[in-house]
Design brief:
This protein is mainly α. The chain has one domain (61-242): Up-down Bundle (Growth Hormone, Chain: A), CATH 1.20.1250. 62% of the residues lie in helices and 0% in strands. The chain has helices spanning 11-26, 31-34, 63-91, 98-101, 116-122, 126-153, 162-185, 200-203, 208-242. The chain is elongated. It starts with 10 loop residues before the first helix and ends with a helix.
Length: 244
Amino acid sequence: MEGTTLGSFSHIKHFMKGLTLVIMLSSAVSASAFLTEEKWRRPCGVSNGPIAGSPGGPPTHSPDIILAGMLPILQSAITAAESLKHKYISERLTARRVPNLDTFHFDGMPDVTMTTSEIEESLVDINLAHMSNYKKLSKVLVFLEQVRFDETFMDSSIDTYKEEVQEIEIVILNVMCVKQRLIQNAGAQIDHISHTEMSQDIRVTANDHERHERDYVIVKDTFQLLETMHVHVTAINNQMRQSQ
C-alpha cells in the first residue's frame, strides 16, 4: 500500500513466518518452481503457434478488428473480478473493514485509474499504449499468482478461491495474448517484468484474516484496473477507426 502494508511485522515474525512457509512447501511443492511460471511472458501459450502476420504464421486481421475482439474478453475479466470481489465481502470480510480496505493500494500494483487527458495523450502512440497496458496486466498477474498460491497451499478453510482466481488469470492472459500480437506485429519488443514487482513484505501475512484482507485489496484493484482498461481500449479502437 502506498508506503504501508496491512500489518506491521517485526523481524522475528518475518523470520518465523518465512521459516514456516519453507517447511510447509518442502513437503508439498517447490516454491521456486511455482515462482518461475511467469506466464505473462508467454500469454498465448506454447501451443498457439507463430504470431499472426509473422513469416510462417496465420494472416492477421486489421488492428481495429483485433481490438474489437478484445473488448468482450476484457468484459469477461471484469465480470470474474467483480464476482470474486463481492465474494470476499460476503464471505471473508467484516462489513466495517471494507470502506477502509477500499482506500488501500499496494506498492507494485499498477495505477488503476486514468484521467480523460491521460487517455487522450496515450492515443498519440497507440503501440506504446498497448505496451503500457501489457505491463500493467503483467503486474496484476504477479499479485494474483501469489493469491492463487496461498489459496492452494495456505488456506485452512474447506472452500478456497483458487478456481475463481485462476479464472481471472486465464482471461487476463487471453487479453495479453491479443496485445502481444498487436505489439509484435508492429515490430516492437516487450520489456517483461519479474516477480520482484511484489515485495516480500506484501507476500508474507500473519494469518488467514490478514491474508484475506490483502487479497481483497488485490482483487478490487484488479477489477478497477480492468474497468479502466476497457474504457481505454474502447478509446483506442475508436481512434483507429476514425483514422482509417
